[in-house]
# Entry
Amino acid sequence: MATIFSRIINGEIPCYKVAEDEKNFAFLDINPLAEGHVLVVPKTETDYLFDLSDEDYTSLQLFARKVAKALREAVPCKRVGVAVLGMEVPHAHIHLVPLNSESDLDFRKPKLQLTPDRMKQIANLIAEKL
Ligand code: 5GP
# Structure
């Protein structure tokens, strides 16, 4: 069965899309740790990030860097934090989270609840910087 991220990539489930290329897709995390929390996902359905082929892994990391640069311009922050968990969704992905302090990357924190309008606005702001 297709993963939830494959269904998002295929347009079967809506998302706040940020960017896409031939091999990769980026969209806002639905339960963000911070405004501008993005997930960067390879289109190929591989569970574990470090099981990706060299080509797909490299492509994903280069794509993540592009998105992270745009994210930092769109959402002012000290750094863009990078995390790989995969505890919930068995489809490799990288979390990009705008950081102003170490605690901003604490996944145990309560998640933000943003309105659909705000989510759309943030996704568009990042997309415009790409
Ligand atoms: P992980 O697998 O890295 O532990 O967590 C998966 C992440 O994907 C979580 O932060 C969760 O909020 C996000 N997520 C799970 N399902 C969806 C979804 O349907 N849409 C979006 N945009 N994010 C999701």
About this structure: Residues 16 and 27 are 5 Å apart (CA to CA).
